[in-house]
Structure formats: C-alpha cells, structure tokens
Amino acid sequence: MMPVRSRMLGAVLCSSLVLGSVGCGDEASFDEESLALGEATAALSSSEEPGEAGAEESVGFASDAELMTTVEEDADATGPVPEGAGAVCDFGAKRSEVRDAYDADGDGRLNRSELAELKKDLDLTRVRPRFARLAWRLRANAFLLIRWAFDEDGDRRLSDEERAALVAAFEQRCTRLHQQALDAFDADGNGLLDTAEREAARQAARARLVAKYQEVLAQYDRNGNGSLEAAERVQLRADGLAQARERRAAVIARYDTDGDGVLSAGEKDALAAAIRQRIEEGRQAP
C-alpha cells in the first residue's frame, strides 16, 4: 500500500512540477525525460555548491565501502578552484544544458535512444556521465548517498515517485539558494540579478571555495609547492575516511533513539526526513 505521504506528494507533483510533461490519473505517471533530466540536474547542482546539500548526514546510510569510495572521490577531486566555479544556482538553465548535451538531433526533446544514453549515465557507479562536463565537479558518490534519503520503501532503488520527490527537493533548494544570492547581491533592488550582480555573487562563492582549498593545502602540502602530490593525497584520504567514520557514528548516535547502536527502519526514516527537509530549505547539516 502506498504511504500517505507519497500519495499526497504525487498529487502535488502532478499539479506543480515545471520539469516537463507530467501525466496524472488514479496512479500518477511521470514523464521519463523530465525525471532523468531533473535527476542529472540535481546531481550537478548539489555537486557545484560550496556546501554538501545533505551529504554530511547521508553518511548515516553508508557502508564502509561507500564511505571509502566517497572519500577517495573527494580526495582525487581536491585541487585548484576553477575560475568559473561558484555560479548562482539556476535549476532551469542547468536542466536545459543537460538536455542539449544529449539532444543529438537538436529537436529540443530526447528521443528514445537519446534518453537511453542519459539514463545509462545516471547509474553513476560505472560510467563518467556526459553531463559531468557541464559542471566544474561532480560528487557522484556523495549524490548516491543523498539519493537513498528519498528511497522511502527501502528497496535500494528509486521509483518514479521517489525520483520525482528528489528532483522537486533539489529544485526547491536551488530556488532558495538563488533567493539568498538575490537578497545579498541585488544592489539596485529590482528583484533580479543583472550580469554584474550575478558575477559578484559567483566571486563571493568562489572565494569561499578557494579559502577551503587553501586550508587543505596548509594542512597537507608538506613540501610547500602549492599543490597536492600523490603521497600527500594518501594522508588526505586517510584523514578523510577517519572523519567520515566519526560523522557516521555521530549521525547514528543522534538518531539511534533506542540506543542499540544501529539505526532501525523507523530511525532511518527520521534521518531521511531530516535530510530531505534540509535539502528543500537550503540548509546544511548541524
């Protein structure tokens, strides 16, 4: 039997999603193209942000192998921040970029073969997706952990309804982050970010990313050459794994209400709900 929350969510999505054609009836059917484009856009938007978009608490779902993979991904990707990093979140624009990357015939829609290519890339565990070229980084393994926060039935895959919830949450997050940039950088108060204001917002976000990278260099660049070499990344990975395990233990302790040292199904549900809420509200984990 479908959970009440899911039935209500399906009704809301049918009436409000602006991700493409969504059909509704007694059983909601979601447009495959819209969901695939939306999920790829969610992966990109979460990866490009200075923050973690819920990933910090998503370690509560992770096995040791998944923690290791995520830590290795982050360590390997740690490097100088590109000039274009820090762009203001714009879900619609990024979604259009993803569509264009797969729209081989240029007709503005994805046909069956084009959609199949995108859906294959959404596996994220075996391929380097084509849409990764549209962002300065892709934190694929971190996004996979976030994805499980939307797996309400616990079957380790996302149904169309669960995937639609993920897309809607990240679109809402992007809207809130855009509003935060507007509040901070709309100098003329016209309710829009012009080119100069958008660039100021981007430069401020990039400065935060650069500062974070400089902190890493200060700790791990032992020969002082301004970059991380292979031997230095070994220690970065080791420390990252230890910190990830500590975060996981802290998350489990926070949500382990019966004190048995593991998260029951109900406790995992509470953790997942908290992650989903933080994503939607544009907040980071405490």
UniProtKB/TrEMBL annotation:
Question: What Gene3D superfamilies does UniProt report for this protein, alphabetically?
Answer: EF-hand
Supply the alphabetized keyword list: Signal
Q: Does the keyword Signal apply?
A: yes
Superkingdom: Bacteria
Q: Which GO terms describe its molecular function?
A: calcium ion binding
Please give the Pfam families that the UniProt record associates with this protein.
EF-hand_5
Task: Specify the signal sequence span.
Answer: 1-20
Cite the EF-hand domain residue spans from the record. Answer: 100-118
Q: Does the keyword Transport apply?
A: no
Q: What is this protein called?
A: EF hand
Q: What is the native source organism of this protein?
A: Stigmatella erecta
